[in-house]
Design goal:
Two copies of one chain form a homodimer. Chain A is mainly alpha-helical. Chain A has two domains: 7-68, Winged helix-like DNA-binding domain superfamily/Winged helix DNA-binding domain (Arc Repressor Mutant, subunit A); 72-120, Penicillinase repressor fold. Helix content of chain A is 61%, strand content 10%. Chain A has six helices and two strands; from the N terminus they run αααββααα. Chain A has helices at 7-18, 24-32, 39-51, 72-88, 92-101, 107-120; strands at 55-60, 63-68. The first copy, chain A, has a two-stranded antiparallel sheet. In chain A, helix 1 (7-18) crosses helix 2 and helix 2 (24-32) crosses helix 3. The longest helix of chain A has 17 residues, at 72-88. Chain A binds a DNA duplex through helix 1 and helix 3.
Chain lengths: 122, 122
DNA sequence: CGTCAGTGACTACATGTGTAGTTTCATTGA
DNA sequence: TCAATGAAACTACACATGTAGTCACTGACG
C-alpha cells in the first residue's frame, strides 16, 4: 500500500534522508544545487509528500519542519523489487546478466560484487 | 532522446518482443492473459507507441501489423541505467548489496550470479 | 445488395506530475 | 503601531497515463 513517490518528489526525499528535520527553505536550498526548481516547486512537492504521509511535519513557530516517515532503505527495497519484477521477471540474475552484457559492469564492480556474495554465503 | 515507454505500454511491448508482427487483436489476445484490459485499451496503447515510433506499422489490407522498432535489450539497458543512476548513484554494487540485504536473493540466485561473474572474467 | 462484424481514428475523462503563481496571515523591525 | 517580509495554503495549468467509449468505414456473408 506504500504510497508512490514521483521522480521530482524523490529528489526532495534524498535531501531529507541526508538530514532532517529541515524547513522548506532549507530543503529548497539543498535541492536547488541539483535541480533548477523554484522554492514554490519544492514547497509543493513537500506538501504532496506530507499529504501522502511520506514525510511528517512538525510545527516550529510559524513554519514547519519536515522529516521523512519512510526509511530510504525501505523505499529502495520497494522500488528495486518492483523494478526487477516488472523488467526481469522478478529474478536478479537476468538483471545482472544484462548489465554485464551491456558493459555496465566494470572489472571493479565485478570484483566487489563477488566479494559481497562471498560474504553473504557465510 | 529515446521515447519514454509507460508501464502499460511496456506490457504491450513484451508481447511484441516475443512475436511480431501482430495485429492489434492478436496483441490484445496475448495481453489479456496478463492484464484485464479491453481491446480498445490495447489499441490505444499501440497507437501511442506507434505515435512515439516505438512500434512500426505495416498495412495489411484493412488492418495493421505492429512490430517493435526498439530492441528489448536496448530498452532494458536504458531503463536499467536510468534506474541505477537515479537510485544507486550509478553503481551496481549498492543495488546488488541492497537486494541481498533485503533478502531478495536466494542461495540459488547467489550461486547463479557467481557463476555468471566467473564467466565474465574470462 | 444490404447488413453486420471487425478495424483504425478520434474522443473522453479522472488522476498523477512537473512546475509554478497568488493569496492570506502572522511576525518582526522601524 | 504599521508596513514589509516570509511562510503555509490554495490555485493553476499543460502534459502524461490508465482505461476505455464512440464513430466511420469497409469487406465478407447471407
Amino acid at each position: 500500500m506504500s504510497e508512490r513517490i514521483s521522480d521530482a518528489e524523490h529528489a526532495v526525499m534524498e535531501v531529507l534522508w541526508k538530514r532532517a528535520p529541515l524547513t522548506a527553505a532549507e530543503v529548497a536550498d539543498q535541492v536547488v544545487r541539483e535541480k533548477d526548481w523554484s522554492l514554490q516547486t519544492v514547497k509543493t512537492l513537500l506538501s504532496r509528500l506530507a499529504a501522502k504521509a511520506v514525510v511528517g511535519t512538525e510545527r516550529d513557530g510559524r513554519r514547519f519542519l519536515y522529516s521523512p516517515l519512510v526509511e530510504r532503505d525501505d523505499y529502495l527495497t520497494g522500488v528495486s523489487r518492483n523494478f526487477v519484477d516488472r523488467l526481469f521477471g522478478g529474478k536478479v540474475m537476468p538483471l545482472v546478466a544484462h548489465l554485464a552484457e551491456a558493459d555496465e559492469l566494470s572489472a571493479d564492480d565485478i570484483r566487489e560484487i563477488e566479494e559481497l556474495l562471498r560474504e553473504l554465503k557465510k
